[in-house]
Design brief:
With 134 residues, this protein is an alpha/beta fold. Helix content is 46%, strand content 13%. Strands 2-1-3 form a three-stranded parallel beta sheet.
Length: 134
């Protein structure tokens, strides 16, 4: 959050340099997360579908899909800590998303990395999104 919060200052500075009012420009964020009915499934989804969420280095230097695949094999569950929420608990996800709302983002796009999209939409639509406070 500190890193993202610091970006707002740079954002405002850049907007003013471009002759724009930073207070009227939309602040948009995409959040990658892994939700499933169990913590084990959520972690399996993160490891299989989105291992780059656990990679703690720039991915721009990866030269080929094969190189990426080899690096992805090195990602462990603990690598996601502080980088991406991986949990079966809707309230854990809600609390994390609320932090971004509180920072002042106007729009937050959520990306569940698993293939369980229908379940995720149902759960987040009923148990997460309605509890967010602007």
């Amino acid at each position: 959050l500190e890193k993202i919060s610091g970006l707002f200052g740079k954002f405002a500075e850049g907007a003013r340099e471009a002759g724009k009012d930073p207070d009227v420009l939309p602040k948009v964020l995409q959040v990658h997360l892994s939700w499933a009915p169990t913590d084990e499934q959520a972690m399996a989804n993160a490891l299989h579908e989105w291992p780059n969420g656990g990679m703690k280095f720039p991915k721009g230097d990866i030269r080929s899909p094969w190189d990426f695949e080899q690096m992805a094999k090195l990602v462990r569950p603990e690598d996601f800590a502080g980088r991406m929420v991986v949990s079966a608990d809707p309230d854990v996800h809600r609390a994390e998303i609320q932090k971004y709302v509180d920072l002042g983002f106007d729009r937050i796009y959520l990306h569940n990395v698993g293939r369980n999209q229908r379940e995720w939409i149902d759960v987040f639509g009923a148990q997460v999104l309605p509890k967010l406070v602007r």
